[in-house]
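Narrative of activities, Objective 1.

The group set out to show that a structural description can be obtained from nothing but a protein's sequence at a throughput compatible with the screening campaign. Below is one input-output pair from the validation batch, recorded exactly as produced.
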Amino acid sequence: MKLIASDIDGTVLPLGELEIDPRLFEAIKKLDPKKAIFVVASGRNHNNIKKLFLPVADEVAILSENGTAVWNEDELIATIPIERELVQTIIDKLSTIPNLEMYITTPTGGYIIPKDRERAAELMRSPIRQISLIESIDEIEGPIVKVTAFCYPDSKTYFQTLKDLFKDDGVEVAIGGPNVVDVTVGNKGAGLKKLAETMGVGPEDIYAFGDNYNDISMLNYAGNSYIVETDDPELKAAARYSTKDVIGEIEKLAEEFKRDEAEEN
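Output recorded for this entry:
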């Protein structure tokens, strides 16, 4: 068994675009599910990923919420939750930072404790996120797996500040997009490891694709890693290969796996 794991935004979906190139779906359909599985790894929620990958939704595994919710065949098989006391600590600390909103997620839902009502209303109109307004995390049922800071004007302005803010709390802080910094106790690498172990797949049979800092753990875990071409030295160092065309690389892998299966038969 082999796994092909890929981030979405900036990797197989150019930033600002809403639909994935159908070439990717065709490549996924070429995979024999007994021999190779495509894994979608994203900071997005499960339902949004399913809609985005609708033509192949029943043929992929999903690592949603930056790998902290692991899904296979529409079944939630693992989570990497944040303890409630720590969630409250994260919220209290983020509340001291101006010009950001907090988005709290479970494997199946998202919640905002609004600081700025206008910005919260803008976030609730997002087609990517399903959001409810709450006053306290006591209103949230189920495991909390991620707290996201929506940063204005951008995530890079706040990233180091937030890393320093949480340096003693045992959490992961990663840039997830132009205005997004995610706080978790897990990551895409940990989620991919959980999925791979349930399938008996070792790192040497995993191919991973990413473009951003929240992909580094996944790229480090996979035996075969690809970064979208970049000038960033930290991102370059995280992967064995770089590429301008992720979908093209996935197409090549699908064809290679198909040839290998034919030779075996």
